Amino acid sequence: MKRRILWNDIKSNRLLAVTTWIFMAISAFMFALTCFLFVSLLGSVDTLMEKAQTPDFLQMHTGEIREAELARFARENGQVCDYQTLHFLNFENSSIILNGHSLVDSSQDNGVCVQSRNFDYLLDLENEIIKVSDDEIYVPVCYRREYDLAVGEKVQIGENSFVLAGFLRDSQMNSMMASSKRFLVSESGYEKLKAVGSEEYLIEFLLQEGTDVSTFATEYTDKGLPSNGPVITKPLMRMMNALSDGLMILVILLVSIVLLLISMLCIRFTLLTQLEADRREIGMLKAMGISKGDIRRLYNLKFLALSGLGAVTGLLLAAGAKKILSVQIQELYGPSENGSSGFLAAILGVAFTEGILLFSVGRTLRRTEKMSAVEALIGQHGERKNEKRYSPQHLMAALIICLGMFMMILPQNLLNTISSPRFVTYMGIGDGEIRLDIRQTEDIAGRTAQVEKLLEEDEQVQLFTALGTVSCRAILPDGTSTGLQVEEGCHTIFPVAYAEGDAPKEKNEIALSYLCAEELGLSVGDGMLLSVDGKEQEYTVCGIYSDITNGGKTAKAACLHADGALMWSVFYVSLKDNVPKGQWLADFKMALSERGISAEAVDIQEYVADTYGQTMGEIRMAARAAVLAAVLVIFVVVFLFTRLLVAEDRSEISLRKAIGFTGSDVKRLYFLGYLPVLLSGILAGILSGNLLGEKLAGLLLRTMGATGFHFLIDYRTVCVWIPVITAVTVFCAILTGLLEIKNIRAYECCMGKE
């Protein structure tokens, strides 16, 4: 009996049933896809790191090392499970040629190494440990698509040629956000290349489970062990590996939440519309003695059936879309070993989505319990004729247009911000045109002075500043200390983005990155002690800035009075007007090479494109998908609401036709009625997308160390193209929904009058 009633109800309200099913399926699809991708990404990254046996602590070092001291420290420290020192041979990017493409324009530090013997293995595309033969080379997998590489091709490094035997996955440096890339050669190949490269060391430790890496790092530094280079920890490696695709997944999650909200509103409205249409039937059922609970269960059964159908549809669509969207994840990190976990997570995501929608349905159905049989049978007594026309359909349509605009604007603004030249200031990079890095070389201070003199004598240079990084000890209030990388120099010429305060100008001022200030518990105006070359100096925190480089934990000072060796130095340069940047870079690199100076010179915009190109590509894809989803949702909702309005006004439309109005005249009235709705929805969407969207994006970027975030808005896209797309979609939906008007006859208004 119930099944027959349910089926008859769905058949008699096909439009409402199909609409409800579509929104339930879309919500299930988006949340299931988010769960699939998130679990797949984390599973692939964790599987790669587990099979590669990624070190917990890595100290990069340039210069001499004392193996005996390192071995004694590892032996005496109870937290160390295993330890090794790997050799890494750096090359000038111009000396590496892949498939005829020179890496001269690459912002990455490229070098070669041999396979590790203990841990930190380099893996092939089957996630197996690579065994490389003489005259063979394995290339990072991230370069395969970028340079259209294939196995068997020649790879040239200086005067030496190798056969490309395959592609490698590197659990440390797989992501383009890692500034270095390792190529794998045999021991004999490494010896051949030694004469043309500069060698550095990777000092690596595997630690006992539960060890505090920060505490271990402090112990390492306190022993005075080699530390001329950055420190990288396993959590940072995991974050860098997951971040690029993770941002795309987070954008999809935000869109999923907006779609869920839209679905809740639309399903609630369609249910209220059906309850209004079924008002008399509900009254008759109550008059016949059928209880409120039985009536509610009839409706619940219908929506439970539609929810189940939507859940299955969404889950199947998400499983198919996941295969397409996870291709890059699989290539970079390999297959995930928790496929069943991904499917379980997707099912839980779908259950969560459908549970919220059914909960909303249940709350709405309680309206039937408040209505007596007499009230239901009597009906509204023509009250609708006295109601304002801009109630619930129009208000709901305006809200849906607003949310659809929000869906389109948020990922577009995030993409535009990351693509903008000014985004580098949130990365901890000055807003110059060109960046010069001096690393992995001897006598960094001397080389820095040579480069500084070259820039001073160059008439094409407008401005430049030199910044040197040294390692200090920050003394905490409890007497303990922690290592801190401090960048010394003039920070006011090419400043980064400061969330609070300003750049250091005086000798006793220091600025901290957001993550560093959070870890040390300091804010602007607080004092702190630094141990520089064994001498304690007092500084005042003058600013807190964004930095997502070097793990996001850095500091900046105008003067440190440090006598110790520089870890590395960086120059920011801006050129005079009309100076061709590409030509200047080529000439300057030649000048550096002639003087034997090993320095990396890159266009900062190319540096950002190299580092975040993969991320921008993912967000661009998510932004396009969000536009398509928003257009579909807005079209379906406005079409549905228009059809409902026409159905409710059928008698009134018939009367208008009877007194001489044409179908076009009636349609014009509906278009004019929707105009304020469209304009208010677009305006609210622009405001929410830019203001609320900025807050949400800021929360995401803050986890990476970027604070004080502001959208860099492309107003032509946000204020012209997206509103135009929305307006065209709305008018097409209205036009489609109004097609029923031609089927309404003038004589209908005289039929069935009571």
Helix content: 40-55%
Could you tell me how far the N terminus lies from the C terminus, measured between alpha carbons in angstroms? 32 Å
Which word captures the global form? elongated
Contiguous helical run count = 20
- Number of DSSP strand runs: 21
Provide a compact summary of the structure.
The chain has 754 residues and is of the alpha+beta class. The chain contains 20 helices and 21 strands. The strands form two sheets. Strands 4-3-7-8-6-9-5-2-10-1-11 form an eleven-stranded mixed sheet. Strands 13-14-19-16-18-17 form a six-stranded mixed barrel.
Describe the structure.
The chain has 754 residues and is an alpha+beta fold. The protein contains 20 helices and 21 strands. The strands form two sheets. It has an eleven-stranded mixed β-sheet with strand order 4-3-7-8-6-9-5-2-10-1-11. It has a six-stranded mixed β-barrel with strand order 13-14-19-16-18-17. Strand 17 (527-532) and strand 18 form a beta hairpin. Residues 373-390 have low confidence and may be disordered.
Please name the defining characteristics of this protein.
754 residues; eleven-stranded mixed sheet; six-stranded mixed barrel; elongated
